[in-house]
Amino acid sequence: MDKTKYPASTKKAQENMEASRPDTATRILDVSERLFVEHGFEATSLRMITQQAEVNLAAVNYHFGSKDALFEAVFMRRLAPLIASCLAELDELEAREEKLSVEGLVTTFIRPCLALSKDPARGGALFVRLLSRTLVENHRLLRETISQQYSVFVQRYSRAFHHALPELGVEELAWRMHFAFSVMFNAFAGNDVLKIFTRSQIVSARDPDMIVKYLVPFVVAGLVSPVEG
Protein backbone atom coordinates (compact mmCIF):
# COMPACT_ATOMS: atom_id res chain seq x y z
CA MET A 1 0.00 0.00 0.00
CA ASP A 2 1.26 3.48 -0.86
CA LYS A 3 2.06 5.22 2.44
CA THR A 4 1.86 8.61 0.76
CA LYS A 5 -1.92 8.21 0.69
CA TYR A 6 -2.09 8.15 4.49
CA PRO A 7 -3.25 11.42 6.04
CA ALA A 8 -0.63 13.40 7.93
CA SER A 9 -2.22 12.54 11.29
CA THR A 10 -1.92 8.81 10.58
CA LYS A 11 1.70 9.13 9.51
CA LYS A 12 2.47 11.08 12.68
CA ALA A 13 0.79 8.42 14.80
CA GLN A 14 2.90 5.72 13.13
CA GLU A 15 6.08 7.70 13.84
CA ASN A 16 5.09 8.10 17.48
CA MET A 17 4.41 4.37 17.80
CA GLU A 18 7.83 3.57 16.35
CA ALA A 19 9.55 6.11 18.59
CA SER A 20 7.93 4.76 21.75
CA ARG A 21 8.86 1.11 21.18
CA PRO A 22 10.91 -0.10 24.18
CA ASP A 23 13.83 -1.32 22.04
CA THR A 24 14.11 1.90 20.03
CA ALA A 25 15.96 3.90 22.70
CA THR A 26 18.42 1.04 23.28
CA ARG A 27 19.08 0.73 19.55
CA ILE A 28 19.75 4.46 19.30
CA LEU A 29 22.11 4.35 22.29
CA ASP A 30 24.03 1.33 20.96
CA VAL A 31 24.53 2.85 17.51
CA SER A 32 25.45 6.25 18.94
CA GLU A 33 28.02 4.68 21.26
CA ARG A 34 29.76 2.97 18.36
CA LEU A 35 29.68 6.03 16.10
CA PHE A 36 30.98 8.34 18.82
CA VAL A 37 34.00 6.04 19.24
CA GLU A 38 34.59 5.74 15.50
CA HIS A 39 34.10 9.38 14.53
CA GLY A 40 34.01 11.49 17.70
CA PHE A 41 31.10 13.59 18.91
CA GLU A 42 31.44 16.51 16.50
CA ALA A 43 31.79 14.37 13.38
CA THR A 44 28.85 12.10 14.27
CA SER A 45 25.64 13.54 12.88
CA LEU A 46 22.08 12.70 13.88
CA ARG A 47 21.56 11.64 10.27
CA MET A 48 24.29 9.00 10.63
CA ILE A 49 22.73 7.78 13.86
CA THR A 50 19.17 7.58 12.54
CA GLN A 51 20.26 5.80 9.35
CA GLN A 52 22.29 3.12 11.13
CA ALA A 53 19.76 2.70 13.95
CA GLU A 54 17.00 2.52 11.32
CA VAL A 55 14.83 5.10 13.08
CA ASN A 56 13.61 8.53 12.18
CA LEU A 57 14.63 11.81 13.76
CA ALA A 58 11.37 11.90 15.70
CA ALA A 59 12.49 8.83 17.64
CA VAL A 60 15.72 10.57 18.75
CA ASN A 61 13.79 13.67 19.77
CA TYR A 62 11.16 11.57 21.56
CA HIS A 63 13.67 9.74 23.76
CA PHE A 64 16.51 12.25 24.13
CA GLY A 65 15.50 15.67 22.86
CA SER A 66 18.86 16.66 21.37
CA LYS A 67 22.24 15.35 20.27
CA ASP A 68 23.85 16.73 23.43
CA ALA A 69 21.33 14.92 25.64
CA LEU A 70 21.86 11.73 23.62
CA PHE A 71 25.62 11.95 24.15
CA GLU A 72 25.09 12.35 27.88
CA ALA A 73 22.66 9.41 27.95
CA VAL A 74 25.20 7.18 26.19
CA PHE A 75 27.60 7.80 29.06
CA MET A 76 25.27 7.77 32.01
CA ARG A 77 23.81 4.31 31.32
CA ARG A 78 27.31 2.78 31.48
CA LEU A 79 29.12 5.11 33.84
CA ALA A 80 26.79 4.86 36.82
CA PRO A 81 27.20 1.06 37.16
CA LEU A 82 30.97 1.37 36.67
CA ILE A 83 31.29 3.97 39.43
CA ALA A 84 29.11 1.82 41.69
CA SER A 85 31.40 -1.17 41.07
CA CYS A 86 34.50 0.88 41.89
CA LEU A 87 32.99 2.14 45.13
CA ALA A 88 31.89 -1.38 46.07
CA GLU A 89 35.46 -2.59 45.56
CA LEU A 90 36.71 0.33 47.65
CA ASP A 91 34.22 -0.49 50.43
CA GLU A 92 35.45 -4.08 50.48
CA LEU A 93 39.10 -3.02 50.59
CA GLU A 94 38.52 -0.56 53.43
CA ALA A 95 36.64 -3.19 55.42
CA ARG A 96 39.41 -5.75 54.88
CA GLU A 97 42.57 -3.65 55.34
CA GLU A 98 43.27 -1.38 58.27
CA LYS A 99 46.21 0.14 56.40
CA LEU A 100 45.23 0.75 52.79
CA SER A 101 47.79 -0.19 50.17
CA VAL A 102 48.28 2.00 47.11
CA GLU A 103 48.25 -1.05 44.84
CA GLY A 104 44.97 -2.16 46.38
CA LEU A 105 43.42 1.25 45.77
CA VAL A 106 44.55 1.33 42.15
CA THR A 107 43.18 -2.17 41.67
CA THR A 108 39.74 -1.17 42.98
CA PHE A 109 39.50 1.13 39.98
CA ILE A 110 41.28 -1.03 37.41
CA ARG A 111 39.42 -4.28 38.12
CA PRO A 112 35.92 -2.91 37.36
CA CYS A 113 37.27 -1.27 34.19
CA LEU A 114 38.78 -4.59 33.13
CA ALA A 115 35.54 -6.45 33.88
CA LEU A 116 33.55 -3.88 31.91
CA SER A 117 35.91 -4.11 28.95
CA LYS A 118 35.19 -7.86 28.73
CA ASP A 119 31.39 -7.55 28.99
CA PRO A 120 29.75 -6.53 25.70
CA ALA A 121 26.36 -6.37 27.43
CA ARG A 122 27.65 -3.41 29.47
CA GLY A 123 29.44 -1.71 26.60
CA GLY A 124 32.62 -3.76 26.60
CA ALA A 125 35.91 -2.41 25.34
CA LEU A 126 34.01 -0.02 23.08
CA PHE A 127 32.59 1.98 25.98
CA VAL A 128 35.83 1.89 27.98
CA ARG A 129 37.56 3.44 24.97
CA LEU A 130 34.83 6.05 24.59
CA LEU A 131 34.88 6.91 28.30
CA SER A 132 38.66 7.15 28.39
CA ARG A 133 38.91 9.27 25.26
CA THR A 134 36.21 11.65 26.41
CA LEU A 135 37.67 12.12 29.89
CA VAL A 136 41.18 12.59 28.48
CA GLU A 137 39.84 15.21 26.08
CA ASN A 138 37.84 16.81 28.92
CA HIS A 139 34.71 16.98 26.79
CA ARG A 140 32.67 20.11 27.41
CA LEU A 141 29.32 18.31 27.54
CA LEU A 142 30.31 15.89 30.29
CA ARG A 143 32.71 17.96 32.35
CA GLU A 144 30.02 19.56 34.51
CA THR A 145 27.69 16.55 34.58
CA ILE A 146 30.37 14.13 35.76
CA SER A 147 31.75 16.53 38.36
CA GLN A 148 28.27 17.04 39.83
CA GLN A 149 27.00 13.47 39.78
CA TYR A 150 30.20 11.69 40.73
CA SER A 151 31.69 13.99 43.33
CA VAL A 152 31.31 11.12 45.84
CA PHE A 153 33.68 9.01 43.72
CA VAL A 154 36.30 11.78 43.73
CA GLN A 155 35.90 12.43 47.46
CA ARG A 156 36.11 8.76 48.42
CA TYR A 157 39.23 8.07 46.38
CA SER A 158 40.92 11.31 47.47
CA ARG A 159 40.33 10.41 51.12
CA ALA A 160 41.50 6.81 50.61
CA PHE A 161 44.73 7.84 48.88
CA HIS A 162 45.37 10.41 51.59
CA HIS A 163 45.14 7.63 54.19
CA ALA A 164 47.44 5.39 52.15
CA LEU A 165 49.97 8.19 51.51
CA PRO A 166 49.85 10.41 54.63
CA GLU A 167 53.36 11.74 53.96
CA LEU A 168 52.12 13.62 50.89
CA GLY A 169 50.74 17.13 51.15
CA VAL A 170 47.34 17.97 49.67
CA GLU A 171 48.80 19.59 46.55
CA GLU A 172 51.38 16.85 45.97
CA LEU A 173 48.73 14.15 46.30
CA ALA A 174 46.34 15.98 43.97
CA TRP A 175 49.03 16.15 41.28
CA ARG A 176 49.92 12.48 41.64
CA MET A 177 46.28 11.41 41.45
CA HIS A 178 45.84 13.64 38.41
CA PHE A 179 48.77 11.96 36.64
CA ALA A 180 47.78 8.47 37.79
CA PHE A 181 44.19 8.64 36.56
CA SER A 182 45.26 10.38 33.36
CA VAL A 183 47.65 7.52 32.63
CA MET A 184 44.95 4.94 33.37
CA PHE A 185 42.38 6.66 31.16
CA ASN A 186 44.92 7.03 28.35
CA ALA A 187 45.90 3.38 28.62
CA PHE A 188 42.30 2.26 28.09
CA ALA A 189 41.55 4.84 25.38
CA GLY A 190 42.53 2.46 22.58
CA ASN A 191 45.22 4.67 21.04
CA ASP A 192 47.80 2.04 20.14
CA VAL A 193 50.86 4.27 20.57
CA LEU A 194 52.78 1.14 21.58
CA LYS A 195 53.27 0.38 17.88
CA ILE A 196 55.66 3.32 17.70
CA PHE A 197 58.02 1.58 20.11
CA THR A 198 57.75 -2.04 18.98
CA ARG A 199 57.48 -3.70 15.59
CA SER A 200 55.75 -6.76 16.99
CA GLN A 201 52.45 -7.54 15.29
CA ILE A 202 51.39 -9.66 18.27
CA VAL A 203 51.65 -7.05 21.03
CA SER A 204 48.72 -4.64 21.17
CA ALA A 205 47.98 -1.79 23.55
CA ARG A 206 44.30 -2.62 23.09
CA ASP A 207 44.58 -5.94 24.96
CA PRO A 208 42.99 -5.15 28.35
CA ASP A 209 44.85 -7.91 30.22
CA MET A 210 48.21 -6.71 28.94
CA ILE A 211 47.27 -3.14 29.80
CA VAL A 212 46.57 -4.09 33.41
CA LYS A 213 49.72 -6.23 33.67
CA TYR A 214 52.01 -3.30 32.89
CA LEU A 215 49.80 -0.41 33.98
CA VAL A 216 49.29 -1.19 37.68
CA PRO A 217 52.99 -1.35 38.73
CA PHE A 218 53.74 1.76 36.66
CA VAL A 219 50.97 3.81 38.27
CA VAL A 220 51.77 2.54 41.77
CA ALA A 221 55.44 3.45 41.35
CA GLY A 222 54.51 6.99 40.44
CA LEU A 223 52.14 7.37 43.38
CA VAL A 224 54.59 6.07 46.02
CA SER A 225 57.82 7.64 44.72
CA PRO A 226 59.75 9.66 47.33
CA VAL A 227 58.95 13.34 47.63
CA GLU A 228 61.70 15.50 46.11
CA GLY A 229 63.46 17.75 48.62
UniProtKB/TrEMBL annotation:
Keyword Transcription regulation included in the entry's annotation: yes
DNA-binding region: 45-64
Disordered as annotated region, ranges: 1-22
GO molecular function terms noted in the UniProt entry: DNA-binding transcription factor activity; transcription cis-regulatory region binding
Gene3D superfamilies membership: Tetracycline Repressor, domain 2
Biased composition range(s): Basic and acidic residues: 12-21
UniProt keyword list: DNA-binding, Repressor, Transcription, Transcription regulation
Protein name according to UniProt: Predicted transcriptional regulator for fatty acid degradation FadQ, TetR family
Organism ancestry: Bacteria, Pseudomonadati, Pseudomonadota, Betaproteobacteria, Neisseriales
